[in-house]
Structure formats: structure tokens, C-alpha cells
Amino acid sequence: MTGASNLYPTADLRARDAAHHFHPFTDTGALNREGVRVITSAEGVWLTDSDGNRYLDGMAGLWCCQVGHGRGEIVDAVEKQMRELDYYNTFFKTSHPPVIALSERLAQLSPPQFNRVFFTSSGSEANDTVFRMVRTYWDLMGKPEKKTIIGRWNGYHGSTLAGTSLGGMTGMHAQGDLPVPGVHHIPQPYWFGEGGEMSPDEFGLWAARELERAIDVLGEGKVAAFIAEPIQGAGGVIIPPDSYWPEVARICRDRDILLVADEVICGFGRLGSWFGSQHYGIEPDLMPIAKGLSSGYLPIGGVMIADRVAEAFIDKGGEFYHGYTYSGHPACCAAALANLDIMVRERLVERVADDIGPYLQQRWKALGDHPLVGEARMVGLVGALELVPAKGDRSRKFAPVGEVGTLCRDISFGNGLVMRAVRDSMIISPPLVLTHEEADELVARAARTLDETYAALK
Ligand code: PLP
């Protein structure tokens, strides 16, 4: 696995990183003792580190690099844009061609109720925007009491104050005394882990009706919105039973609360449709987006706003006192436009639905036969392997939770495959350009990793 060249002095990079870089979502103290892995270049689905080792990027960066790494076309589009108009803002009655073109493009690509987009630089900022937009919407509708937003335990909506609060990660809540007031969480539709004796569909209905029960307790007149990822990503690729989303959509409609589908991971082809909500046949009122919008080449996110909400603001809202210096940054819009051009030209969404998606799913699900795997699940190109101590018994978990997952993740790196560990689940979300040969390679490396992890536990 070690390549010939060593252009970068790893020890020097590690020492400088340890001295000056405080990492996100990292125990920086522990990392500094271990030594960081330094990624120096990337091409297609492959990453190279400072020692010349190559890894198959099974996570598409952080669930974002749909078109693969190293696409010169995006680089050229950004360079051209920066030479023409490096930066200008979109506040105070100004706009520019790339932000106009991207807004129009997103309106064309998204479901019919969406004709407008508010731009941000990230998914977290998109969810902070959602938070203020939802509450302001109900003020404008003459129902200022409708303020509570319901999210789900183990949901992830980013790490700003609103993002952390809307998400249901208790470890995150504990840092910063969150959630902020006015957020309520209900159980997740995690059949494998929490479904008990119920069938998946019974459990899906039960989990959906937890929303209705929460609305009854909180009071319909007090609840503003429900926010959820079509498939929970960071929570461990929690794929809801088929019965779940139609029931959630019915409840939101019947009880007059806004439905927010967080599409930051599921959007832009990940599930084999442009948006995850299309895969589940639901019609949200707001869709936070980011990641695959630019394949991560430059930071850009946003909120797709359904006409029902946008028109309330436009007709009676006056000024929305909200925005970011980089909302609709010209270079980021140019990167997103070039990325979307590639996705359309190479039919990447269709490919996930009809070709590479089913191809990888079949092989991935076969890993479910491994003695260490309790369930192998995948929709589109996002999947998980649940590692269990006793195959066939969903009630038993490894203790302490997460140790086996971390071991498996480290072994996977050693085998040249990036998988992410969430508790004791191994996650993949590869670039949508993955070829059949690369899919075979990914599965072979994952299988070897499972064998080695299993052997290490004996
Ligand atoms: N929403 C979801 C569903 C996510 O998965 C993420 C990031 O993983 C976010 C929001 C936050 O996005 P960002 O990290 O760009 O702030």
C-alpha cells in the first residue's frame, strides 16, 4: 500500500498540526499523542496520504464528494468566476449572475413546491436559518404561539447552537448546555437497535406516531415544525421502515405543522433521487441543503423554501434580518453550478438508482452473512454494517459501545478503505462516480476488514 514517493515529511506535519491545529469533532489531546493522518492529494475515489498510502474514499470526504475528487472542470469554473467577480454580497438589493443562475437551477432540480433558495456556507448555517424562518413564518401567519420545533433523538443537524439543539445527540447537548428552549425530541425510527419485538413496519408506525403523541402533549397550537433527515446519516445510517415517512407526512399535514426534511446528506443523488424526500414520496416545506451541492469543492449550503413559506415572507414579512457575508458567494455558486453540470451530464443520480446503486447494494448486503454483522443495509449509495457480539440477537450490543467500531475503523484504514464508525456500525457513503471495479474493491476491503476485526476479538 505504501507508494514510492514521500513528498511530505509526515513527522514535521504532525508536529506542526499538534502544536497549532484544534480539530473539529476530535479528542485533540489523544490525537496529538497518536499523530494525525495527513491527506495530501485526491483523484476520483482515491485519497493519498503524506506517506504515499492510498485509500478508497468510502465516505466521499464527509458524505459530500458526489462527483469524485480532482475534477478540473470545477476548478476552472471557480478560477474563471474569481477572475471576473471574486466576491460581492447579496445583501442590500444586490445580486450577481452565478447566484441567480444557481437559484434558478435549484428551483428546476427540486420538487415543484420549491422555487426559492436562501444561501448559506454550510448545513449548520442552513439549520440556523430554518430555526428562525420557521418561527418567523408562524408569527407572520398570526400564530405566534407556534414556536416549538420537534426533532429526533440521535438526529444530526449540524453543530451551531440551533443545529446542535435541533439534533438529538446527547453528547453534543452536554457541551454548551443545550438544547435551547423550545426544542423537543422524539424517538428515532431505528428498528435494528430499538424495534424490540415489533416488525419493522409496526415499529415505523409507532415511531411516526410518537410525533403525534408529542404534538398532543405539547399542544398543536404550540408546535411549529418537525425536522428530520430522510435517512439519518451521522446517527448511523438509520433507514426508516417503509411505514414511517407516509405517516409522518400525514401527521404534519393534519396537525398544521411545517415539515423540514434535512437534505444535507440525502440530497443530490445520495439515495438515487435528487432529494431524499422524493425517494420517500414526501413534500417538505423547507429543505436544508449543503455537501453534495458543490461536492465539497467549496463551502456552500442553503435552504430550499416552499412557495407557501416564501410567499408569507414576501407578501407580509418585510425585511428578514438574517444573512451571512458569504450567502451566495460567487465562487461557491460557480463551483456548485459546475458540479451540478457534471451530475446531470454524467447522469449520476440515474446511475445511483439503476446501476451502481443496485450493484453495490447487492454486494454490500452479502456482507450481512459475516459472523460479526447483525445487519447490512443500504439505500442508494449510503449504507451501514451493524457489528454485533451475537449474530441473530438484536438485543445484545458490544460493551463498551463503540470500542469494536473504532477498532474496525482503524483496521479498515490499514486496508486502504475509509469507513466511518458510528458506535459499532461501519458506515459508507462513497462518491457517486464509483465504478463497478471500485465497488468490488470496496467490498473486498470491507470483507477483509471484518475478518481481521473478528480475528482480533477472539
Ligand atoms: N445536517 C445534516 C443532516 C448533516 O449530516 C450535517 C453534517 O454532517 C449538517 C446538517 C451540518 O452540515 P455542516 O457540517 O456543513 O455544517
List the helices and strands and how they pair.
Layout (H helix, E strand, L loop, with lengths): L9 H11 L7 H7 L4 E5 L2 E4 L4 E3 L3 H4 L8 H13 L12 H13 L4 E7 L2 H18 L7 E5 L8 H6 L3 H5 L8 E4 L4 H4 L5 H19 L4 E6 L15 H11 L3 E4 L14 H4 L6 E4 L11 E6 H10 L13 H16 L2 H7 L1 H11 L6 E7 L2 E6 L15 H12 L5 E3 L2 E4 L7 H22 L1
Parallel strand pairs: 5-6, 5-7, 7-8
Antiparallel strand pairs: 1-2, 2-3, 4-10, 9-10, 11-12, 12-14, 13-14
This protein binds pyridoxal-5'-phosphate.
Structural summary, described in words:
The chain is of the alpha+beta class and about 450 residues long. Helix content is about 40%, strand content about 15%. The strands form four sheets. A four-stranded parallel β-sheet has the order 6-5-7-8, with helices on both faces. Strands 11-12-14-13 form a four-stranded antiparallel β-sheet, covered by helices on one side. Helix 10 runs parallel beside helix 11. The longest helix is centred in the C-terminal third of the chain and has 22 residues, at about 435-455. About 50% of the residues are buried. Bound molecules: pyridoxal-5'-phosphate. Pyridoxal-5'-phosphate binds near residues 122, 163, 229 and 290.
